[in-house]
From TrEMBL:
Signal peptide: none annotated. It comes from the Eukaryota. It is found in: Endoplasmic reticulum membrane. Pfam families: ERG4_ERG24. It is a multi-pass membrane protein. The chain crosses the membrane at residues 85-102, 122-144, 156-173, 239-258, 278-296, 308-327, 391-417. This is 7-dehydrocholesterol reductase. Keywords: Cholesterol biosynthesis, Cholesterol metabolism, Endoplasmic reticulum, Lipid biosynthesis, Lipid metabolism, Membrane, NADP, Oxidoreductase, Steroid biosynthesis, Steroid metabolism, Sterol biosynthesis, Sterol metabolism, Transmembrane, Transmembrane helix. PROSITE patterns: STEROL_REDUCT_1. Its EC number is 1.3.1.21. The keyword Nucleotide-binding does not apply. Belongs to the ERG4/ERG24 family. It comes from Knufia obscura. InterPro entries: ERG24_DHCR-like (IPR001171), Sterol_reductase_CS (IPR018083).
Amino acid sequence: MSDVSATAIVEITNPTTWGRAGTAGWDKAIGAFLIVAAVPTWLHMNWIALEQYEGSITAALKAALAEGPVTFAFRHFPQFSLQALLGYAFWLLLQAVFYGYLPGTLCYGQRTPGGHLLTYTANGLLAWAITHALYIGGSFLDLVDPALIAKHWEGLLVAVNTYGFVLAILAQWKGYWAPSFSEDRKISGSILFDFWAGVELNPRFGKYWDFKFFHNGRPGIVAWTLIDFSWAAYQYQQIGHVTSSMMIVSVFHLIYVVDFFYNEDWYTRTIDISHDHFGFMLAWGDTTFLPCLYTLQVQYLARYPTYLTRTQSIALLVFGLTGYAIFRSANFQRDYVRARDGKCNLWGKPVKFIRCKYTTSDGKEHNSLLLTSGWWGVSRHANYMADLMQAWAMCATCGFTHFLPWSYFFFMSILLYHRSLRDEKRCHSKYGKHWEEYCKQVPYRIVPGII
Ligand code: NDP
């Protein structure tokens, strides 16, 4: 045990305030309404810009202003397709069956504010592998058009959006009327805010079928690399080859997605699963926003190919892969040290940490530790910095002429910065003076020396 770990344990005086904010006034309700209205509109504008305005979001916005937003929306709104809707319904069913029945490792999440320690079955990697084997195998055997998803993108956009909204409504209804763990529920007093931020922390069917774990990972993240494959095939069908930019961004996405499923056990202890409630933000966000926005680079490249020089390709690969290495190592270190209760080395030295306690709403006290060495001693969210390095490299494959394919990088910068604020507020309520001590020892939030 290090000397830092011997820091005195300070009483937590306000034990049950470390979950999501409990109440919401008009300001938060209006904020929630604006986000729920604006983000789907943004997603549709991206599609319109890609289809009609050569990938220029500025040109699409100018046209919307010139024509008037209502006429513009009616003229360009994506069309419903029964085929796409049925295809998406089949997709959801297939992923639900894989989630429910494939063998996997039993793992534990983080203890909830209500004191529950939930179990999850991590079988995502197998589900991902089988799904890809079926689609890619089917393409090589000429049973499936590899560009099928790309060609039905318009109808799929309508289908995923509809499902995302319906799911968020159902989640709110379930949270109010049939909660799985009522101690972990948050009812803010504002229906709009509850819709956005969620009511239940861990909504479940029965004991094991976890709504949030399934929807956060499976329909959206399994689809991510399949969508990439399909747009790469679309590019091939259009121009007779796949560009190096398309290959590089697809490799970055592939690494990110496989890493996610390979470490699915770790994912149960991240903010999404441990702390965020299941509302529109996660339900619509993970089923709709994620597969549509995170794949913008391949959607762009398939229609408007970018050619990179060999030097540019190597530089992007080195930068993106370095980002991945830091990302994985930082995320690994926290779990590794906590699992060994700090009795281990990092970077060849005994690990340094602050030992702390927190209390759950059942009044029980639990031990924890805050790591102050390794990546967690470089900055308080070095894993976010590494994520942004990867995001930068992914977007840079599209060149610097258009804003649209860079949406992912700008979105991630805002998301992760805002997430760090939210997380630190919660950690402060949970760990009190120990968190303040951590901030003193590790003064930078994300990028050392800058922020
Ligand atoms: P983290 O995995 O960074 O977890 C934050 C939690 O870690 C805190 O709430 C606290 O939880 C614990 N913690 C904080 N400081 C320390 C410390 N010094 N030592 C030990 N534990 C500490 O958060 P996220 O879930 O946001 O991120 C996980 C990964 O997912 C990141 O790499 C991020 O970049 C990525 N991500 C990707 C997104 C995407 O859309 N592509 C979206 C969001 C995240 P506790 O209560 O356990 O103490």
